Amino acid sequence: MPNTRSASKRLRQNAVRQERNKATKSAMKTQIKSVLSAVAAGDIEKAEKEYPDASRKLDRAGAKGIIHKNKAARGKSRLQAAIKKAKASA
Q1: Domain boundaries, the chain
Q2: Helices of type H across 1-90
Q3: How far is residue 82's CA from residue 86's CA, in Å, rounded to a whole number?
Q4: Cα 12 from Cα 18, distance rounded (Å)
Q5: How far apart are CA 35 and CA 78, in angstroms?
Q6: What pLDDT was estimated at residue 64?
Q7: Could you read off the pLDDT of 3-58 as tens digits, one per residue?
Q8: pTM score, whole prediction
Q9: 3-class SS at 58?
Q10: CB of 68 closer than 8 Å to CB of 32
Q11: Does domain 5-89 correspond to CATH entry 1.20.58.110?
């Protein structure tokens, strides 16, 4: 339990930020999964259509500090490589 007013406020702020970060991270993961499932199903058009949204969400999470910027870049690169590999095999 916080002992001071400032600590109480900090606790409230942290709870709000945690919920916001959780929502952003969840949306990001969902978008990534939609791209990967489209690649796995062989639906390259859908994967290419979903990729810009996934890329945007990764960049946004990286900019906000929810994930590291390099992790966002790595995630985009891996998604793009998966799409490229599926396109080559099709």
Answers
A1: 5-89
A2: 5-41, 44-64, 69-89
A3: 6
A4: 10
A5: 11
A6: 95
A7: 999 999 999 999 999 999 999 999 999 999 999 999 999 999 999 999 999 999 99
A8: 0.87
A9: helix
A10: no
A11: yes
